[in-house]
Every structure is written in C-alpha cells, then in structure tokens.
From TrEMBL:
It is found in: Membrane. Belongs to the methyl-accepting chemotaxis (MCP) protein family. This is Methyl-accepting chemotaxis protein. InterPro entries: MCPsignal_dom. Coiled coil: none annotated. GO terms for biological process: chemotaxis; signal transduction. Its main location: membrane. It comes from the Bacteria. Keywords: Membrane, Transducer, Transmembrane, Transmembrane helix. It comes from Halopseudomonas aestusnigri. The keyword Membrane applies. Residues 228-464 form the Methyl-accepting transducer domain. The chain crosses the membrane at residues 21-39, 68-86, 92-109, 116-133, 145-167.
C-alpha cells in the first residue's frame, strides 16, 4: 500500500523567494518613479505614492510574507507603480507598457489570483482616471484619451491576464507536481539509511501517475533484483564449484592425456618394431617360400628318381629271376653231365674189368679206361661242385630276389612318402605364400597403425594443450566467480538500502 505524503512547504519556500524578488522589483519601480519625477517635477508623487508603497510592502513582508494576501498586495502595488509612472509621464502611451511588464512579473508566483487582482486594480485605475481626466482633476491616464481607447487598453490587459492566468495555473500545477514529487523523493530517502520504494505521490496527474508507475517498476525491479542476487549467489557458488571441478577434471585430463601420450608413443614404437619384424618376417617368409618351392621341385625330382629306381629294381628283380632260372637250367644240364659221368665211370669200370680180363692185351685199354674213369670221377666231382655252386647261386638268387622284392616294396613306400612329401611341400608353399602376403599386409597395416599412433599422439598433445588451456580458464573462471561474489555482495548491500513491500 502507498504511504500518504504530507503537505510540502516547497511552494511556500518558493513564495518567500518570489516575495523577496518582488520587493526588488518594487524598488526598481521606485527608482523609475524618482527618475520620472525629474521630468515633470513630480517628486511628491514619487515620494508619497512610490515610497509609501515600498514601505508598506516591507512592513507587510515582515508580517505576512509567503501568504496569498501579500502576493495580492504585491500585484496591487505593481499596478499602483504603473499608474504612478503613467501619471508622472502625463499619460505618455509608452508608460502603459509597464502594466504588461509588471503583469508578466507576477507569473513568477505561479498563482493566478494575484494576476486577477492586478487586472482588477488596473481596470479600476483606468476607469477612475479616465473619469478624473475627463473632469480635469489633474491626473493623467493617456494623452487624447477616449472611452474607446480605454476599452482597447482594457481588452489587451484582459487578454494578457487570461494568458498569464493560464500560464500561472500550468506553472502552479507543474510546481505542485514537482513539490509532490520532491516530497515523495524526500520521503523515500528519509534519513539517508535507505530508499523506501513503497512511497507514492498522492496527487493525480499524468506526470505523477507516470512517476508512480516508475516507482512501481523500480520496486518490482529491486524486488526482482534481490531475488536475482540470491539466485546469482547460488549460481556463483555453483559456478565456483563447477570451476573447481573443471580445474580438477582438467588436471586429471591433463594427467591422463600425458599418460595416453606416453602410452601412444610407446605403442607407436612397439608398432614400428612390429612393422619392422613383420617386414623381416615377410622377407624371411619370402625366402622360405623360395626354399620351399626349391624343396618341392627337389621332392618332385626325388619322386621321379625313386620311381625310376623302383623301375630299375623291378628290372633287376626280373634279371635275378632270369639268372635263377638259368641256374636251374644249368643244374639240369649238370645233372645230365653228372649222369653221363656216372655212366662213363661205369663204362670205365667195365672197361677196366674187361681189360683185366684181357690181360696184357687189354693193359693199354685198361690204362685208357683208368684215365676215363679218373676223368669221369673228376667230372662227377666237378659236377657236384658245380651243383653245390649252383645251389648256393640259387640260394643267393632267391635271397637277391627276396631282397629286391623288399627293396621294391621299400622304394614303393618311399615313392609314396616322397609323393606325399611333395604334396605337403606344395601345401607348405601355398601356406608360405599366404603367410608372405599376410606378413606384407601386417607390415603395411602396422606401418599405417604406427603413423596413426603418431597422429593420435600429436592430437593428444593438442588435447593436452587444450586441457592446460581449460585449466587456466577454470582458474580464471574461479577468480571471476570470486569477483562475481564480491559484486553480488555489493549489489545485495546496495539493494538492501531499498525497502519494498514485497
């Protein structure tokens, strides 16, 4: 609720100031009257009327200054001075301008009533002095005056009075508004300990209504400002805490980033080592592939040689079988020879018997028969040896044939193993070729990974720089939060000087 504003003394102070100014104007009018007195020798009028008016004004100033009555007296005194000047100048038309000038001075009071009093006084003066001048009473209104001229003068005075009344009322209203506004402001300020925004001007006018609306707005703003300051304090605390957390997070991020940079550098180094090893493995695999291909070709050559050896062994076996068959044939022939030798021995024995029977005649024949018998015995003996040799030869041939068969079987197995080995080597060659390709891919990939690792390390360095910058910004934000809190405290202290109804 608005608090009523007590009546101000501002206009009364203005009236006092204006009264002092009007006394000065009356003194100027007295000086003017004294100056005009030298023109036509009207010293007595100047001293009595002009001096008396000024003395009376000072007396009333001491008693009723600042009052409406004194203001009306000043208005009447101004017109008396104007009438004095006109009379001293014997109705010179130019002296009538003093009426308008002095009427204009009255607007300083910002009161329309002295203007009306002055208008009435000067109107009475014109009518009375017109009559007196017409009766030649020794007073002057205007040279060659007529009633019509008096009416013209009266009309101009009324017009000016109307304008001045309007301006005075406007000035009074403005002064009153200023007074109420000033008193409202004084009430708001009070003893200077604060500003009471609940005060309102108790006078209705567009300006004061706008002023009250401004106070409403200010009250709302200050109330909102106090609330905002509290929220700002909470926000400042949150910002300060956030800045502290950000600083700690930035420091942790910096540590983690530094660790990641070191890890990425080590990873890049390890990847580079892997790339080199993969390249070495690729070269070794390529060499192994070449040697495996050579081994595969050698195994194929061995397989061909073993197959040829198997063929040769088979032929040799066949030859041994043929030799064994020949030994059998020879044994049969030896059996025939042996039979012939036995028969020869029998014949020789029969011949020896017959030779013995013949006596000396058969001695020569006996010698021959004996030689034949010896020959048949040696033949039989030789055939026995031959049979024994042939028997051993058959046994050797059989052993050779058996060994050949075993060799053939072994060579066949060796051929199978060689062929299997060749196939295995062919698979190994294919796998080694695949390994060579994969090693090459691994080498390329690890080189690319090493390059990417170095790039990541570079970016991590940049992230570390950003983390450092964030840390600095967090420190600055923390400092700004502290400064913001100081400003908030000052604003809260200032806002506390404004009292609101909310």
């Amino acid at each position: 609720m608005s608090k009523p504003v007590p009546e101000s003394l501002t206009l009364e102070a203005h009236y006092l100031h204006a009264d002092r100014a009007m006394l000065g104007v009356l003194w100027l009018c007295l000086l003017g009257a004294l100056g005009l007195a030298a023109w036509h020798g009207t010293w007595l009028q100047a001293m009595l009327v002009g001096g008396g008016t000024v003395l009376l004004a000072h007396s009333l100033y001491a008693l009723i200054r600042g009052s409406l009555l004194f203001r009306c007296f000043v208005a009447a005194a101004f017109m008396v001075m104007a009438a004095l000047h006109i009379n001293q100048a014997q109705g010179t038309l130019e002296m009538h301008f003093s009426i308008f000038v002095l009427l204009a001075f009255l607007i300083i009071y910002r009161d329309w009533r002295p203007i009306v009093v002055a208008t009435i006084v000067i109107a009475v003066h014109h009518l009375a002095f017109y009559v007196l001048q017409m009766q030649e009473a020794g007073v002057w209104l205007a040279q060659g005056v007529t009633f019509g001229l008096v009416m013209v003068h009266a009309g101009y005075v009324i017009i000016e009075a109307g304008v001045l009344v309007y301006l005075a009322r406007m000035s009074f209203n403005e002064a009153r508004e200023g007074e109420v506004m000033g008193q409202t402001v004084a009430r708001m300020i009070g003893d200077g300990s604060g500003v009471d925004l609940t005060c309102r001007a108790n006078m209705r006018s567009p300006m004061l209504d706008s002023f009250n609306a401004l106070l409403d707005t200010l009250e709302n703003m200050v109330s909102g400002l106090s609330s905002s300051m509290q929220q700002l304090g909470q926000l400042g605390s949150s910002v300060s805490k956030g800045a502290s957390d950000l600083r700690q997070g930035s420091e942790q991020q910096q540590d983690k980033t530094r660790y990641m940079v070191q890890a990425m550098l080590e990873l890049s180094q390890a990847t580079a080592d892997v790339a080199r090893n993969a390249a070495d493995a690729a070269r070794a695999s390529s060499e192994a592939d070449k040697r495996a291909q050579d081994g595969h070709a050698a195994m194929q050559e061995i397989a061909r040689e073993v197959a040829s050896l198997e063929n040769n062994i088979a032929q040799t076996g066949e030859a041994v079988d043929g030799a064994a068959q020949l030994a059998i044939d020879i044994d049969q022939v030896v059996d025939v020879i042996k039979g012939v030798a036995e028969q020869t021995n029998l014949l020789a024995l029969n011949a020896a018997i017959e030779a013995a029977r013949a006596g000396d005649q058969g001695r020569g024949f006996a010698v021959v028969a004996d030689e034949v018998r010896n020959l048949s015995q040696r033949t039989a003996q030789s055939t026995s040896e031959i049979q024994d040799f042939i028997s051993r030869l058959q046994q050797a041939s059989e052993s050779a044939r058996s060994a050949m068969e075993q060799s053939r079987t072994s060579v066949h197995r060796c051929l199978q193993v060689t062929q299997s080995s060749a196939e295995i080597l062919a698979g190994i060659v294919s796998e080694i070729a695949s390994i060579v390709g994969r090693n090459a891919q691994i080498a390329t990939a690890t080189e690319e990974q090493s390059a990417v690792g170095e790039d990541v390390a570079t970016h991590l360095h940049e992230v570390e720089a950003v983390a450092l910058a964030n840390t600095a910004e967090a420190v600055e934000l923390d400092r700004l939060s502290a400064e913001l809190e100081k400003v908030r405290v000052v604003l809260m202290r200032d806002a506390a000087q404004f009292r609101t109804g909310r």
